[in-house]
Amino acid sequence: KKRQHQTSGSDAGASRKKSTKATLKFEDGPNQFRFRLVCSLLTLKPISIRNIRPDDIEEPGLRDHEVAFLKLLDMITDGSSVEINNTGTSLRFKPGLLLGGDHVFDNCEGRSIGWFMEGILPLAPFGKEPLTIHFKGITDGHSSKDLSVDYIQAIQVPILQHFGVGVDGESPPPEAKVIKRGQAPLGGGEASLFCPIVKSLSSTDFTDPGKFKRARGTVIGCRISPSSSARVAHAAKGVMHNLLPDVWIHTETHSGSKHRSGGCGPSPGLGVWMTLQSTTGVLICSEVCQDVNKSRGIELPEDLGQRCAYDLLKEAKKGGCVDTHSQQLYFLLMSGAAPEDVSRIRTGTLSKIGIASLRLIKLVFGIEFKVIPCGD
Fold it and tell me: 3-class DSSP state for residue 182?
């Protein structure tokens, strides 16, 4: 039987080790690539990563999207430097100061905008000025491996607000917004990220999951028949209405014409994302896109809607107060919260990424988390 866990951050002021300039060395390749760079920037500790796909005969070393992420970090910082060897199998990163400011980034190299947005989100509140980035690339169609902009707005932006980012009333709240849809593989979409700065993060005590009371969702169709989007929404609602009366799923259909819904990219596609909200403010999300694998046949809209609904229910069954895909972000923000208070969060089953994040936070920040199994 899967257990729920209650995770408690220890006193950050007492347990955080003194910052040193010694280089942190990692010998296991590109694992946690973005998260290691983020931790390096937050602590100003240089890092060295070796053995980056050395056994890959065709494409050893860093991938294009990983190099693009390094360029994005260089864009929003001052004084950062990267040294990459000739084969790309090792790098040394020296962090600089986070600046913020207004930027345009259109070098996503085949990965979705959400992959880059998720990577820099933990850094956004700590610049010298508010951060605004206008992205160009793929907004939808990669939900099997990347988080979408819609997921980040629905789940991870509220997590930032949970820790006091943009809730003082002096600046607008953080926001991740899709401006123009662009399905994989050709993209052509646009999205923006805005995040105000914060002097210090607030501590949090989020251990009551409550009861789920409403379900919301959006079906996104680009260059397809509007009836397909309606079929997806109907199938998803058919599953959720067995459990909840308050279910609302919006259909969002885009054509190539700019006069209708602002237009979209050149690739057709169909996807859906859904959220569940509890009585205590817990938010969990599931998102899927249409499987177009020709060997299995194109997935029917009804199957797509049901798959998203069932994935959402599986996520709800895990329990806890934080979505599985957002455990890493929550743990990192807990480690940077006010040192005079202890932060607590109740999670469902800890994911592999969540466990690896706890280990990396202990190594880089010197902060340990106490994990207690919950009996209920």
Answer: coil
